[in-house]
Design brief:
With 170 residues, the chain is mainly α. The chain folds into two domains: 97 residues; 68 residues. Helix content is 67%, strand content 0%. It contains ten helices and no strands. Helix 2 packs across helix 4. It starts with a helix and ends with a helix. This is Condensin complex subunit 1 C-terminal domain-containing protein. It comes from Candidatus Nealsonbacteria bacterium CG_4_9_14_3_um_filter_37_13.
């Protein structure tokens, strides 16, 4: 296991472990991102979860570092672990450079995430779609329609977030 991934190992998915430290290392030395991305294929859920968390932290600081790795992010987006999915949703909401095909795939992935059992995944996905709708004016109506579909969500936090986002997008 590469050294970077060893730093992300151990504990459980509820803790961030060394994700923040590893993200800072990668921001200082972007060549390390390839080593981090090897963790997408790890058999250990904790490592896959921490890879997603580390990528999301990087996206907050410098999303441009991740834009050329969309194929790997799409691979990670297939993960069923909620902790991975909500970080992927955050990243997709921040990415600004993509082809039309990649954007379609991002929207499709996020649309699937709106049906996730995890309330956190649904909430983070709503925010990601909101960010995309603000950038991609021609998709705004379609995205609002997807968001509005959650107005009757079983979770009050999701319903409240839907209302705030709809108000923001008007």
């Amino acid at each position: 296991m590469p050294g970077l991934l060893k730093k992300l190992a151990g504990g459980d998915l509820r803790s961030e472990g060394n994700a923040e430290k590893v993200a800072k290392e990668i921001i200082k030395n972007p060549k390390l991102i390839k080593e981090l991305l090897e963790g997408i294929k790890s058999k250990e859920e904790v490592i896959r979860g921490r890879v997603a968390m580390t990528l999301e932290i990087i996206s907050r600081e410098n999303v441009k570092l991740l834009e050329k790795y969309l194929p790997q992010l799409f691979e990670l987006s297939k993960e069923i672990i909620p902790q991975v999915r909500w970080h992927v949703a955050d990243i997709f909401g921040r990415v600004e450079k993509y082809s039309k095909e990649e954007l379609k795939r991002i929207i499709s992935t996020l649309s699937d995430y709106l049906k996730d059992k995890s309330m956190i995944v649904r909430v983070e996905t709503l925010e990601a779609l909101s960010n995309i709708a603000q950038r991609e004016k021609e998709l705004k109506r379609e995205i609002i329609s997807k968001i509005e579909a959650l107005r009757k969500d079983k979770n009050i936090n999701v319903r409240k977030r839907v209302e705030r986002i709809i108000e923001r997008l008007k």
